Structure to design on (253 residues):
């Protein structure tokens, strides 16, 4: 059985004081996090080392929100996968819709990033998802399938079990609108099938998270779906009480 994972994507929010407060609150109430649920926080890059220090000795995992598509070298401003590993990260979000739409990043870069993240011994959390227009045209499954296959192009079956996929419908991110359980399960089952075709039985070890306006109020229903292995949480991960309640929804879901 796949262990549930709940990962908080803080995006470009907060400052040093906020990092201390939020992680302090999560640590103070860590007894509320069920031991069978893995929980990760992904603060902004510049606070990763501080977060690692604050989380040391706890069960919380640390993730980055982005990574360079290059290895070490003359790439001004880029941070490599091995640097993220060096500061204590275990996970890296790759292909978030905001990077696709606002930074014009594309699948070929994501495939390189995923390869380097796995090579560095980290877990990529690869995001896929359709826009509202694509869904209305009946293309949701096709788009997600294509994005997934392109992103995992360089992943070997041996590394596949370390991959995490996040289905994040673009129209549900930060909008308060959540995909219905039926919509979520349909896409997750499709993604699982694509992973089976690509990686054989390793596919059953790959976690597929749902992301898009997950809150304490809807998390339990979503996490209970057969192919949903937890969530990638944006806005609600910035409020300790709400995030902890979402983590709790992972138990026996
Ligand atoms: C996200 O950006 O990954 C996300 C899921 O955001 P939100 O939960 O705020 O919709």
């Amino acid at each position: 059985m796949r262990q549930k994972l709940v990962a908080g994507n803080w995006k470009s929010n907060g400052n040093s004081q906020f990092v201390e407060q939020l992680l302090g609150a999560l640590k103070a109430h860590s007894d509320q996090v069920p031991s069978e649920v893995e929980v990760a926080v992904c603060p902004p890059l510049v606070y990763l080392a501080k977060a690692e220090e604050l989380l040391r000795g706890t069960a919380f995992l640390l993730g980055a929100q982005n990574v360079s598509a290059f290895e070490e070298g003359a790439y001004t401003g880029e941070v490599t996968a091995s640097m993220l590993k060096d500061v204590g990260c275990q996970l890296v979000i790759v292909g978030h819709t905001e990077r696709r739409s606002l930074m014009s990043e594309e699948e070929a870069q994501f495939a390189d990033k995923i390869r380097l993240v796995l090579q560095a011994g980290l877990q990529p959390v690869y995001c896929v998802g359709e826009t509202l227009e694509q869904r209305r045209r009946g293309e949701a499954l096709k788009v997600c399938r294509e994005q997934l296959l392109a992103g995992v192009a360089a992943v070997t079956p041996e590394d596949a079990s370390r991959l995490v996929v996040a289905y994040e419908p673009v129209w549900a991110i930060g909008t308060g609108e959540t995909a219905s359980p039926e919509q979520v399960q349909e896409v997750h089952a499709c993604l699982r099938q694509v992973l089976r075709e690509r990686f054989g039985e390793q596919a059953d070890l790959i976690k597929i998270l749902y992301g898009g306006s997950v809150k304490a109020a809807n998390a339990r229903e979503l996490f209970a779906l057969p192919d949903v292995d937890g969530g990638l949480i944006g806005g609600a991960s910035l409020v300790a009480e709400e995030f902890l309640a979402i983590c709790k929804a992972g138990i026996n879901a």
Observations:
- Residues 4-252 form a domain with the TIM Barrel fold (CATH 3.20.20.70).
- The pocket of phosphoenolpyruvate is lined by residues 9, 168, 173-174, 211-214, 232-236 (CB under 6 Å).
- The radius of gyration is 17 Å.
